[in-house]
Amino acid sequence: MAYEATGKLHEKFDTQQVSEKFSKREFVIEVVDGQYPEHIKFQLVQDKTSLVDAYKVGDEVRVQFNLRGRGFNKNGQMLYFTNLEAWRIEAAAGGGQAAPAARKDAQPQRPAPIASDDDNDLPF
Fold it and tell me: What pTM was estimated for this model as a whole?
């Protein structure tokens, strides 16, 4: 499942080498939603841990992420946890596509004429 969130980069953490084959890095963005800001923590894994290096705290960023959930049995009790696994980070202001520029030689478009009552086939 892919999702997107936009907010201000609030904090970046160091990369953690969890095991010989697995590394992760976490970061937090501040999202203003209503009256109070929300601080959302994301996780970058493996070769994606350097994605947040290009940004500094305070930058407005757009994060694309997957929602991940796992369960495990610990001492006979099932425990569950959820991660927001980021896979793309980009500047929020420049991330979208710009509208195409208008050509100087283009003719203005005229609206289609509105049909009069005499021109339509409606029964009323």
Answer: 0.69
